[in-house]
Amino acid sequence: MVSTKIGRLNHIAIAVPDLSEAVKVYRGLLGCIVSEPMALAEHGVTIVFVELDNTKIELLHPLGSDSPIEKFLQKRPGGGVHHICYEVEDVEAAGRQLVQEGARVLGDGPPRIGAHGKPVLFLEPRDFCGTLIELEGA
Amino acid sequence: MVSTKIGRLNHIAIAVPDLSEAVKVYRGLLGCIVSEPMALAEHGVTIVFVELDNTKIELLHPLGSDSPIEKFLQKRPGGGVHHICYEVEDVEAAGRQLVQEGARVLGDGPPRIGAHGKPVLFLEPRDFCGTLIELEGA
I want to staple A62 with a disulfide (CB 3.0 to 4.6 A). Which of A67, A113, B89, B106 is the partner? Predict the structure, then answer.
Protein backbone atom coordinates (compact mmCIF):
# COMPACT_ATOMS: atom_id res chain seq x y z
CA MET A 1 0.00 0.00 0.00
CA VAL A 2 1.24 3.43 -0.89
CA SER A 3 0.51 5.90 1.87
CA THR A 4 2.88 8.51 0.55
CA LYS A 5 0.98 10.50 -2.04
CA ILE A 6 2.47 13.74 -3.22
CA GLY A 7 0.01 16.39 -4.33
CA ARG A 8 1.04 19.86 -5.44
CA LEU A 9 4.46 21.10 -6.38
CA ASN A 10 4.93 23.71 -3.66
CA HIS A 11 8.04 25.31 -5.14
CA ILE A 12 11.29 24.96 -7.03
CA ALA A 13 14.25 26.37 -5.09
CA ILE A 14 17.06 27.87 -7.14
CA ALA A 15 20.36 28.74 -5.44
CA VAL A 16 21.80 31.97 -6.84
CA PRO A 17 25.20 33.63 -6.37
CA ASP A 18 23.79 37.17 -6.62
CA LEU A 19 20.30 37.77 -5.32
CA SER A 20 19.77 41.21 -6.81
CA GLU A 21 20.86 39.96 -10.25
CA ALA A 22 18.47 37.02 -9.91
CA VAL A 23 15.63 39.38 -8.99
CA LYS A 24 16.41 41.42 -12.11
CA VAL A 25 16.14 38.25 -14.21
CA TYR A 26 12.78 37.18 -12.80
CA ARG A 27 11.21 40.62 -12.32
CA GLY A 28 12.83 42.53 -15.16
CA LEU A 29 13.38 39.97 -17.93
CA LEU A 30 10.64 37.44 -17.18
CA GLY A 31 8.01 39.87 -15.89
CA CYS A 32 7.17 38.10 -12.62
CA ILE A 33 5.92 39.41 -9.30
CA VAL A 34 8.87 38.99 -6.93
CA SER A 35 8.80 39.54 -3.15
CA GLU A 36 11.28 41.52 -1.13
CA PRO A 37 14.20 39.49 0.30
CA MET A 38 13.60 37.76 3.65
CA ALA A 39 16.54 36.75 5.84
CA LEU A 40 15.94 33.36 7.48
CA ALA A 41 18.91 33.13 9.82
CA GLU A 42 17.88 29.76 11.28
CA HIS A 43 17.90 28.25 7.79
CA GLY A 44 21.06 30.01 6.64
CA VAL A 45 19.42 31.61 3.63
CA THR A 46 18.07 34.86 2.31
CA ILE A 47 15.04 34.04 0.23
CA VAL A 48 12.92 35.72 -2.41
CA PHE A 49 9.61 34.38 -3.73
CA VAL A 50 8.69 34.50 -7.40
CA GLU A 51 4.97 34.09 -8.07
CA LEU A 52 3.93 31.97 -11.01
CA ASP A 53 0.30 31.28 -11.94
CA ASN A 54 0.29 27.75 -10.50
CA THR A 55 3.28 27.52 -8.14
CA LYS A 56 6.31 29.51 -7.04
CA ILE A 57 10.04 29.74 -7.44
CA GLU A 58 12.22 30.45 -4.45
CA LEU A 59 15.55 32.14 -5.05
CA LEU A 60 18.01 31.21 -2.30
CA HIS A 61 21.20 32.98 -1.35
CA PRO A 62 23.58 31.93 1.46
CA LEU A 63 23.23 33.75 4.78
CA GLY A 64 25.85 33.39 7.50
CA SER A 65 28.92 31.19 7.68
CA ASP A 66 27.20 27.81 7.86
CA SER A 67 24.68 28.04 5.04
CA PRO A 68 23.59 24.81 3.33
CA ILE A 69 23.61 26.76 0.05
CA GLU A 70 27.28 27.73 0.25
CA LYS A 71 28.64 24.29 -0.63
CA PHE A 72 26.16 23.95 -3.49
CA LEU A 73 27.34 27.24 -4.99
CA GLN A 74 30.99 26.21 -4.62
CA LYS A 75 30.21 23.33 -6.97
CA ARG A 76 27.90 25.34 -9.22
CA PRO A 77 29.08 28.96 -9.04
CA GLY A 78 26.51 30.17 -11.58
CA GLY A 79 23.60 28.81 -9.53
CA GLY A 80 21.11 26.07 -10.26
CA VAL A 81 18.11 24.13 -9.01
CA HIS A 82 18.83 23.26 -5.36
CA HIS A 83 15.68 21.31 -4.49
CA ILE A 84 12.06 20.76 -5.42
CA CYS A 85 9.31 20.74 -2.81
CA TYR A 86 6.24 18.52 -2.97
CA GLU A 87 3.26 18.75 -0.63
CA VAL A 88 2.02 15.71 1.31
CA GLU A 89 -0.81 15.52 3.81
CA ASP A 90 1.14 14.03 6.70
CA VAL A 91 4.88 14.50 6.41
CA GLU A 92 5.71 12.33 9.41
CA ALA A 93 3.71 9.37 8.10
CA ALA A 94 5.20 9.88 4.64
CA GLY A 95 8.72 9.80 6.08
CA ARG A 96 8.04 6.59 8.02
CA GLN A 97 6.50 4.93 4.97
CA LEU A 98 9.41 5.86 2.71
CA VAL A 99 11.94 4.50 5.21
CA GLN A 100 9.92 1.29 5.50
CA GLU A 101 10.10 0.91 1.74
CA GLY A 102 13.88 1.28 1.81
CA ALA A 103 14.30 4.92 0.78
CA ARG A 104 16.46 7.26 2.82
CA VAL A 105 15.32 10.40 4.59
CA LEU A 106 18.01 12.97 5.45
CA GLY A 107 18.67 13.88 9.07
CA ASP A 108 18.00 11.66 12.00
CA GLY A 109 14.63 12.36 13.41
CA PRO A 110 11.19 13.85 13.11
CA PRO A 111 10.35 16.60 10.61
CA ARG A 112 11.63 20.06 11.42
CA ILE A 113 9.84 23.32 10.80
CA GLY A 114 10.65 24.68 7.35
CA ALA A 115 10.83 28.16 5.89
CA HIS A 116 7.01 28.36 5.60
CA GLY A 117 6.34 27.39 9.22
CA LYS A 118 5.25 23.88 8.24
CA PRO A 119 6.88 20.51 9.02
CA VAL A 120 9.32 19.38 6.33
CA LEU A 121 11.62 16.47 5.53
CA PHE A 122 14.38 16.21 2.94
CA LEU A 123 14.93 12.98 1.00
CA GLU A 124 18.24 11.43 -0.06
CA PRO A 125 18.88 12.48 -3.69
CA ARG A 126 20.46 9.14 -4.60
CA ASP A 127 17.11 7.44 -3.95
CA PHE A 128 15.09 10.03 -5.92
CA CYS A 129 16.52 10.43 -9.43
CA GLY A 130 19.45 12.59 -8.30
CA THR A 131 17.22 15.42 -7.09
CA LEU A 132 16.97 16.79 -3.57
CA ILE A 133 13.28 16.59 -2.62
CA GLU A 134 11.67 18.48 0.23
CA LEU A 135 8.35 17.12 1.47
CA GLU A 136 6.16 19.73 3.13
CA GLY A 137 3.24 18.73 5.34
CA ALA A 138 -0.11 20.44 5.64
CA MET B 1 8.44 47.79 -20.99
CA VAL B 2 8.37 44.12 -20.17
CA SER B 3 6.57 42.15 -22.85
CA THR B 4 7.86 38.80 -21.68
CA LYS B 5 5.57 37.61 -18.94
CA ILE B 6 5.84 34.02 -17.83
CA GLY B 7 2.66 32.46 -16.51
CA ARG B 8 2.40 28.83 -15.45
CA LEU B 9 5.19 26.41 -14.73
CA ASN B 10 4.45 23.86 -17.44
CA HIS B 11 6.84 21.17 -16.17
CA ILE B 12 10.12 20.30 -14.52
CA ALA B 13 12.21 17.91 -16.65
CA ILE B 14 14.40 15.45 -14.76
CA ALA B 15 17.00 13.45 -16.68
CA VAL B 16 17.24 9.89 -15.35
CA PRO B 17 19.74 7.11 -16.03
CA ASP B 18 17.15 4.32 -15.63
CA LEU B 19 13.59 5.08 -16.68
CA SER B 20 11.95 2.05 -15.09
CA GLU B 21 13.65 2.77 -11.76
CA ALA B 22 12.51 6.39 -11.98
CA VAL B 23 8.93 5.26 -12.66
CA LYS B 24 9.13 3.03 -9.58
CA VAL B 25 10.20 6.04 -7.51
CA TYR B 26 7.37 8.30 -8.70
CA ARG B 27 4.63 5.70 -9.01
CA GLY B 28 5.62 3.29 -6.26
CA LEU B 29 7.28 5.42 -3.59
CA LEU B 30 5.61 8.79 -4.17
CA GLY B 31 2.18 7.53 -5.23
CA CYS B 32 1.81 9.52 -8.46
CA ILE B 33 -0.04 8.82 -11.66
CA VAL B 34 2.67 8.14 -14.24
CA SER B 35 2.15 7.72 -17.99
CA GLU B 36 3.55 4.97 -20.17
CA PRO B 37 6.92 5.82 -21.83
CA MET B 38 6.76 7.70 -25.14
CA ALA B 39 9.69 7.58 -27.55
CA LEU B 40 10.28 10.98 -29.19
CA ALA B 41 12.94 10.12 -31.74
CA GLU B 42 13.14 13.65 -33.17
CA HIS B 43 13.97 15.00 -29.70
CA GLY B 44 16.33 12.18 -28.76
CA VAL B 45 14.42 11.25 -25.62
CA THR B 46 12.07 8.72 -24.17
CA ILE B 47 9.71 10.57 -21.88
CA VAL B 48 7.31 9.75 -19.08
CA PHE B 49 4.83 12.21 -17.55
CA VAL B 50 4.20 12.38 -13.82
CA GLU B 51 0.95 14.13 -12.90
CA LEU B 52 0.99 16.46 -9.92
CA ASP B 53 -2.05 18.41 -8.75
CA ASN B 54 -0.86 21.71 -10.23
CA THR B 55 1.83 20.85 -12.81
CA LYS B 56 3.82 17.91 -14.09
CA ILE B 57 7.22 16.31 -13.94
CA GLU B 58 8.76 14.87 -17.09
CA LEU B 59 11.27 12.07 -16.68
CA LEU B 60 13.69 12.06 -19.63
CA HIS B 61 15.93 9.24 -20.77
CA PRO B 62 18.32 9.39 -23.75
CA LEU B 63 17.10 7.87 -27.01
CA GLY B 64 19.45 7.27 -29.93
CA SER B 65 23.08 8.19 -30.35
CA ASP B 66 22.74 11.96 -30.44
CA SER B 67 20.53 12.64 -27.44
CA PRO B 68 20.84 16.02 -25.71
CA ILE B 69 20.36 14.16 -22.41
CA GLU B 70 23.39 11.90 -22.85
CA LYS B 71 25.97 14.59 -22.11
CA PHE B 72 24.02 15.78 -19.08
CA LEU B 73 24.00 12.26 -17.64
CA GLN B 74 27.72 11.87 -18.28
CA LYS B 75 28.24 14.81 -15.92
CA ARG B 76 25.51 13.76 -13.48
CA PRO B 77 25.25 9.96 -13.70
CA GLY B 78 22.60 9.77 -10.96
CA GLY B 79 20.28 12.12 -12.82
CA GLY B 80 19.01 15.58 -11.94
CA VAL B 81 16.88 18.51 -13.03
CA HIS B 82 17.61 19.10 -16.72
CA HIS B 83 15.36 22.09 -17.40
CA ILE B 84 12.27 23.93 -16.23
CA CYS B 85 9.55 24.99 -18.63
CA TYR B 86 7.53 28.20 -18.29
CA GLU B 87 4.53 29.12 -20.41
CA VAL B 88 4.37 32.41 -22.30
CA GLU B 89 1.65 33.68 -24.59
CA ASP B 90 3.80 34.38 -27.63
CA VAL B 91 7.11 32.55 -27.60
CA GLU B 92 8.46 34.31 -30.68
CA ALA B 93 7.79 37.77 -29.26
CA ALA B 94 9.24 36.70 -25.92
CA GLY B 95 12.43 35.49 -27.59
CA ARG B 96 12.83 38.74 -29.52
CA GLN B 97 12.24 40.82 -26.40
CA LEU B 98 14.76 38.84 -24.33
CA VAL B 99 17.42 39.22 -27.02
CA GLN B 100 16.70 42.95 -27.20
CA GLU B 101 17.29 43.19 -23.48
CA GLY B 102 20.65 41.45 -23.81
CA ALA B 103 19.76 37.89 -22.78
CA ARG B 104 20.78 34.96 -24.93
CA VAL B 105 18.44 32.48 -26.58
CA LEU B 106 19.91 29.12 -27.59
CA GLY B 107 19.93 28.06 -31.22
CA ASP B 108 19.92 30.40 -34.14
CA GLY B 109 16.44 31.06 -35.30
CA PRO B 110 12.73 30.91 -34.74
CA PRO B 111 11.11 28.64 -32.14
CA ARG B 112 10.95 24.95 -32.99
CA ILE B 113 8.12 22.57 -32.20
CA GLY B 114 8.62 20.97 -28.80
CA ALA B 115 7.60 17.66 -27.30
CA HIS B 116 4.01 18.88 -26.75
CA GLY B 117 3.51 20.07 -30.32
CA LYS B 118 3.85 23.72 -29.32
CA PRO B 119 6.55 26.26 -30.26
CA VAL B 120 9.42 26.37 -27.76
CA LEU B 121 12.68 28.22 -27.16
CA PHE B 122 15.52 27.41 -24.78
CA LEU B 123 17.36 30.17 -22.93
CA GLU B 124 21.06 30.38 -22.13
CA PRO B 125 21.52 29.10 -18.54
CA ARG B 126 24.29 31.61 -17.79
CA ASP B 127 21.78 34.43 -18.23
CA PHE B 128 19.09 32.76 -16.08
CA CYS B 129 20.52 31.81 -12.68
CA GLY B 130 22.35 28.73 -13.99
CA THR B 131 19.15 26.95 -14.99
CA LEU B 132 18.16 25.83 -18.46
CA ILE B 133 14.75 27.39 -19.16
CA GLU B 134 12.36 26.26 -21.88
CA LEU B 135 9.70 28.77 -22.89
CA GLU B 136 6.58 27.19 -24.36
CA GLY B 137 4.09 29.22 -26.35
CA ALA B 138 0.33 28.87 -26.39
Answer: A67
